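We were asked to recover a plausible sequence for a given structure. The inputs and outputs are reproduced exactly as logged, with field labels preserved.

PROBLEM: sequence recovery
POSITIONS: 224
GIVEN STRUCTURE:
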């Protein structure tokens, strides 16, 4: 349905593509600020230009080039992601509708996230990587009007995400600093920051793209 009022966190369709509202400015002509979920491209528009969507079990969507299926019958895993669809935070927690959160650890009531939130099982859907055969893909409102260029863009996003996942640092990987010859193992990864055994902390992208670092051992790849 089209909206007369919008609130932060809602999933909406704008120009046939799935977006998430991140801010509402009531006094502005284009009052709704949102981003396209598949690639985080930002947009602004009026409420009446939007169609509301409520994510549910077995929906499949692309987030930053990676496809997930939302499941209520799967358990969360450490390092995986959840989508908070029924938020009921305690006084010590800070999360709201349709937030994507990474699981730091599993607890009796649900999960503890990397944003230091305790989220109960009834509040979230588990984001399982990949697409199930019975899943309902929700990236577009009407797939009959999706253009060839949009489909090609989606394929390119997935290819880029797959390439990044291959070279993304993992705990146990060993890098060499080409500036001083020191070898260092990845001992921890916190969000997008990598902690090395040498005591250094660097951004994941800096470690991958920098001319000063070179990967010499990849965990789980004995022939590397």
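RECOVERED SEQUENCE:
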């Amino acid at each position: 349905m089209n909206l007369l009022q919008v609130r932060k966190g809602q999933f909406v369709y704008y120009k046939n593509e799935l977006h998430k509202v991140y801010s509402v400015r009531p006094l502005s002509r284009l009052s709704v600020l949102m981003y396209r979920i598949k690639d985080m491209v930002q947009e602004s528009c009026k409420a009446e230009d939007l169609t509301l969507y409520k994510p549910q079990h077995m929906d499949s969507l692309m987030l930053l080039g990676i496809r997930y299926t939302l499941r209520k019958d799967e358990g969360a895993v450490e390092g995986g992601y959840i989508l908070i669809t029924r938020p009921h935070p305690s006084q010590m927690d800070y999360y709201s509708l349709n937030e994507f959160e990474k699981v730091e650890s599993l607890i009796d009531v649900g999960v503890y996230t990397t944003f230091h939130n305790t989220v109960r099982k009834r509040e979230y859907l588990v984001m399982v990587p990949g697409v199930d055969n019975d899943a309902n893909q929700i990236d577009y409102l009407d797939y009959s009007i999706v253009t060839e260029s949009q489909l090609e863009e989606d394929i390119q996003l997935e290819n880029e995400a797959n390439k990044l996942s291959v070279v993304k640092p993992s705990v146990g990987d060993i890098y060499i600093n080409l500036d001083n010859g020191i070898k260092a193992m990845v001992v921890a990864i916190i969000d997008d920051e990598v902690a090395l055994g040498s005591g250094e902390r660097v951004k994941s992208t800096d470690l991958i793209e920098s001319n000063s670092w070179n990967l010499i051992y990849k965990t789980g790849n004995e022939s590397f």
